[in-house]
Amino acid sequence: ALLRSGANIGDVLCVTGSLGDSAAGLYSLLHPFAHSSQEDLIVVRNAHTMPTPRVDEGRVLVQFGPSVVTSLLDISDGLSGDLSHICERSNVGARIELAALPMSQAMRRLAKMVGKEPEQWALHGGEDYELLFTVSPGHEQAVINAVGQATGTDVSVIGSIVSATEGIK
Question: Reduced to 3 DSSP states, what percent helix, strand and coil does the chain have, rounded to the nearest 5?
Fold first, then answer.
């Protein structure tokens, strides 16, 4: 089993898919006056109302075992909330690179149109159900390639695990 408690200082922080689409979809449903292209609305609303569970991706990650994929959970409470679960259970901190957050163009366009920061939806919006996991340094490319080849799902490196005294930033 890959637990929340296995992250180590120096591990690479990764996520599947894109973040913030569900939050954008919820926003568009609660604010129907927000006009966007129909295609963009379909993307973000489907992310909110019909999320794709990352079961196959999880099966690929489990095959690496806890010496390579050191911790894992799905993002239901938002990246910031679920990352705090890994950090608390593993007694570590984390650094996220905002520029590395995977965000769909549909979500970015909607955020711009309604005057929102897309990073806020990506960091704090929930219900994405993407996988957040840590990988031992030097193994990230093998993990990214394996998930991509087996499922077609993109994996992004979004940061690293640091000492608990450094907190989450």
Answer: 50, 20, 35
DSSP code string of 56-111: HHHHHHHHH-TTTEEEEEE-SS-HHHHHHHHHHHHTEEEEE-GGG----HHHHHHH
In terms of pLDDT, which residue wins out, 41 or 35?
Answer: 41
Q: Model pTM?
A: 0.96
Q: Across residues 38-63, what is the average pLDDT? A: 96
Q: Taking a C-beta distance cutoff of 8 angstroms, is the pair 57, 151 a contact?
A: yes
Are the C-beta atoms of 139 and 57 separated by less than 8 Å? no
Cα–Cα distance measured from residue 69 to residue 34, given in angstroms and rounded to the nearest whole number = 40
Cα separation of 35 and 26, whole Å?
Answer: 14
Q: Provide the mean pLDDT of the chain.
A: 96
